[in-house]
Design a protein that fits this description.
The chain is mostly helical. The chain has a domain at about 10-60. It contains 1 helix and 2 strands. It has one helix at about 25-60; strands at about 10-15, 15-20. The protein has a two-stranded antiparallel ribbon. The radius of gyration is 24 Å and the shape is elongated.
C-alpha cells in the first residue's frame, strides 16, 4: 500500500501562513528572489568569516608585523568576527 504525502509549501507573511500555490505570481517571483538573496548573503558571510579567520591566523603567527603607535584617530579599524 502506498501512502501519498500531502505536503504543502507554505510561507509566513506578516505572521500569517499562506500556501505558496495560492499566492499571486508577483509574490511567488519576489519570494524566489528573496530566497536567492538570502543564499547569497549566507555565502558572503561564510566567505567573510573565512577571510577574517585567515587574517587572524596570519597576525598570530611568527611573521606578523608589530603594531605601530598611532597618535591619530584617522586609522580604519578592522575587527574580525569570532568564528
Amino acid at each position: 500500500m502506498s501512502e501519498e504525502l500531502n505536503i504543502k509549501n507554505t510561507v509566513k507573511i506578516d505572521g500569517k501562513d499562506y500556501d505558496v500555490e495560492t499566492l499571486p505570481v508577483v509574490a511567488k517571483i519576489a519570494i524566489e528572489h528573496l530566497v536567492t538573496i538570502d543564499k547569497e548573503v549566507q555565502r558572503l558571510e561564510m566567505a567573510r568569516a573565512g577571510f577574517a579567520q585567515a587574517i587572524k591566523s596570519v597576525m598570530e603567527g611568527d611573521d606578523a608585523p608589530s603594531p605601530i603607535e598611532s597618535e591619530s584617530n584617522d586609522t580604519a579599524e578592522f575587527v574580525p568576527e569570532e568564528v
